[in-house]
Amino acid sequence: MAAGGVVWVTFPKQNLIPPPRKRFGRKLRTGVPLISSTAERAYSEEKVHEVVLKQAAWVKQQRPNEGCKDWDLLNEAYERCGEVCAEYAKTFYLGTLLMTSERRRAIWAIYVWCRRTNELVDGPNASHITPRALDTWEKRLGNIFQGRPYDLFDAALSHTVSNYPLGIQPFKDMIEGMRLDLLKTRYNNFDELYLYCFYVAGTVGLMSVPVMGIASESKASNETVYSAALALGIANQLTNIIRDVGEDCRRGRIYLPQDELASAGISEDEIFRGLVSNKWKIFMKNQIKRARMYFDEAEKGVAELEEASRWPVWASLLLYRQILDVIEENDYNNFTKRAYVGKAKKFASLPLAYGRAIMGTSKFF
User: Fold this and answer.
1) Which pTM was predicted?
2) Which of 47, 109, 132, 310 could be joined to 160 by an S-S link, Cβ 3.0–4.6 Å?
3) Which reaction does it catalyse (predicted)?
4) Are 164 and 210 in contact (CB under 8 A)?
């Protein structure tokens, strides 16, 4: 499944100390209570938590300004990245125009790499992609980080990672998510699904925070902001999954926790037949509730970004949340009705996003 076409802030999945158990089950390290509870969930949480801590620590390091110094080539590379972003992520692209030129171009470069990576398994040539091809792509990623780009798009990212405290691990983890798409069509529980969401979308938040920047007046820790970015990525991907149930079924995939489906009494046959039963509606209400809780956690972190970076992130967050509203308006028929937010609603959200962006850092921390 394609990852969300939105680049955060720091968006995936804030207090990093495990909170006490609640009636719904154990809370995540992000403070989000899960609707189902499994003892195994700690594995994915701990694994992702380690990455968050490592990436948050990167912002304290100053990397030497290396890479390509051919400014004509770099300008062309960044311009082409901007063209791709403008074509495939129109609303977010408009938001990036409010950022400084340097940050805007860096976000474009990250967006394009993520899109190209996703296209390997979801694009027109996906049927020809093998695990070996992804191994080759990962080696190419290593060359990018070592200042040896293969093409113009690579050159833009190579220059970006030489100018911002970006670690390679989130990029490698996204490729790991693509490997899962080649090999896995079912997820036994939310623990497995959470890790998948981290790989394909939470990583985008971790990549973006160093470029977006944390406001100098923010009282939040770096780990807290990175965790909030992670929450946005998780929320976006869960929204993708809920929206695209019918589309994924036609590809033989079910990105829903198998144990929760079983508990709800929903069989795979019912899903493949697109049966919108009462039990399906109840099941979807719970899935939507979970996604919204991650959005709530993400909101706290957006306010901690640099002022010029907040608006595009707020815009993407508010627009993605509206997809969940549309699914409800469609009476939970996500088999044959695609949840689509119309242009009027999108444009109406932009002033609200801008208003929240200029409110300054939050009082949560």
Assistant:
1) 0.82
2) 109
3) 2 (2E,6E,10E)-geranylgeranyl diphosphate = 15-cis-phytoene + 2 diphosphate
4) yes
